[in-house]
């Protein structure tokens, strides 16, 4: 890994999380191999950084584009029943359990 790439990853790790930084190292290594490089460069880090979001950027994306996602047009008064197998809140006729979301 080049010194510049190491510096960039260190900064990313400090600003986000160590886990995210380590995941970028792995992905950047694969990008480096794909381009037949021998050393991870800053360009490899930039490429994977643009492809994989950290927690805060993911949250920001969801806030910005929440209207584009499914069920955004359901009014608050409508009860949406989401069936899952581990909930104990209520049981449907078919025996599946569900959670009521307002």
Structure explained in plain terms:
The chain is mainly alpha-helical. Helices cover 49% and strands 11% of the residues. The chain has helices at residues 3-15, 18-34, 42-51, 55-64, and strands at residues 80-83, 90-91, 97-101. Strands 1-3-2 form a 3-stranded antiparallel beta sheet, with no helix packed on it. A hairpin with a 5-residue loop joins strand 2 and strand 3. It starts with a helix and ends with a strand. Mean pLDDT is 78; it is low at 76-94.
- Give the proportion of residues in helices: 40-55%
What is the distance, rounded to the nearest whole angstrom, between the alpha carbons of the first and last residues? Answer: 50 Å
Rg from Cα? 21 Å
Number of strands: 3
State the helix count: 4
Uncertain residue ranges: 76-94
Strand percent estimate: 5-15%
Any descriptors?
49% helix, 102 residues, 3-stranded antiparallel beta sheet, mainly alpha, 3 strands
In brief:
With 102 residues, the chain is mainly alpha-helical. The protein is built from four helices and three strands. It has helices at 3-15, 18-34, 42-51, 55-64, and strands at 80-83, 90-91, 97-101.
């Amino acid at each position: 890994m080049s010194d510049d790439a190491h510096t960039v990853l260190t900064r990313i790790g400090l600003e986000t999380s160590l886990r995210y930084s380590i995941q970028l190292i792995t992905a950047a290594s694969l990008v480096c191999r794909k381009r037949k490089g021998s050393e991870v460069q800053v360009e490899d880090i930039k490429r994977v950084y643009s492809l994989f979001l950290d927690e805060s950027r993911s949250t920001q994306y969801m806030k910005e584009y929440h209207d584009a996602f499914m069920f955004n047009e359901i009014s608050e008064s409508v009860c949406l029943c989401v069936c899952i197998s581990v909930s104990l809140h209520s049981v449907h006729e078919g025996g599946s359990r569900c959670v009521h979301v307002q």
